[in-house]
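Q&A log
Question type: sequence-to-structure
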Amino acid sequence: MTGQAATTATTQTAGRVTRTECCIAGGGPAGVMLGFLLARQGVDVVVLEKHGDFLRDFRGDTIHPSTLRILDELGLADDVLRLPHDEAPLLQASTPQGTIIIADFRSLRTRWPYIAFLPQWDFLNFIATTAQCYPHFHLRMQADVQEVIEEGGAVRGVRYRGPDGWQEVRAPLTVAADGRSSTVRQQAGLAPAGAAPPMDVLWFRLSRRPDDPATTAFRMRPGHFLLFINRRDYWQVAYIIPKGIDQQVRAAGLPAFQQSLRELAPEFADRAGELRDWDQVKLLSVQVNRLRRWYRPGLLCLGDAAHAMSPIGGVGINLAIQDAVVAANVLGAAYRAGPLRVGHLAAVQWRRTLPTRVIQGMQIFLHQRVAAPALAGQASLPNSPLVRLPVLRALFPRLIARLIAFGVWPVHVRG
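Response status: OK
Response body:
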């Protein structure tokens, strides 16, 4: 390495202070993937994850063709697909008018004409384990980042609380990849702006039986959406409700919620009683927002910390990984040339702004034209003007599939 990178080529710990080249706050898809990609280019990286493992329920599990193509460029796609997963060539919904196709991936020109449903903790464990083969990759679990270190108007690292108390990581670049409620972003004075989606999601589990369908199932009724994700041993269920009525649903009582579940999915009626306490039902407050500026001197925001996505299309994890690839391409070259400048951070945002806006625009459009009317008990998708004409009915699933699968344009690994 040359320039700035040559001075800190190996992580050094002095007391409770660690000095490295890049400090990444957050061990989600953006953080772990960026750490892996930078480490394989010889950049010394410390990734801080506040939990003791990656095993958390109710997070994005969809691996799209765009991500599989990136993994293939790294020689990892086949290994990832050996992990237990399900493949969905279609996204379809059961409605009172019959089954409709929302997205059809079968016509895509790709080795992977489907969405892979793979538990995110398995994916993150795989990437982290692979990254640890590189001496410049350092992952610290149970490292809860709580403060940003600033000097001379620039971010110079973070303070975190770990099993051994307070510690610091100092670096010329800190990356906020700590999610939609990013502590680092808030500490750095950056605030996102965005739309108000018409829905929230209640997540819970139901048992799965050997004779249950193998594929992910989607139910749509006026006023309700229900998504079942196959977890092999159980179903992860997303019950989609109008925005802000979570407390009303809970106030109506658990028996009423169980009855609505029976009516929406009669085949699961005898399992509704497995919900014995509201503690089993978790709220995801749906957000669609983004930062006007993703960076400031010494700091770059990526993934949900830069742009929170709706769960529609399951695009969040895949956009976060594309963010990481673009950032690694730009920053890896910058570290080699040295010194790292604010212009490099601006270049990352410049490359990722349009894809983010387009995908968020698609989500907002579907919120307004499909989700909001359906949740209000109005026309369901088969009667929507979106698909009323035969030509639109044929094109709509392919266009949505193309955007979900690949985004706006391809992202490739360099270096």
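Response note: Residues 46 and 138 are 5 Å apart (CA to CA).
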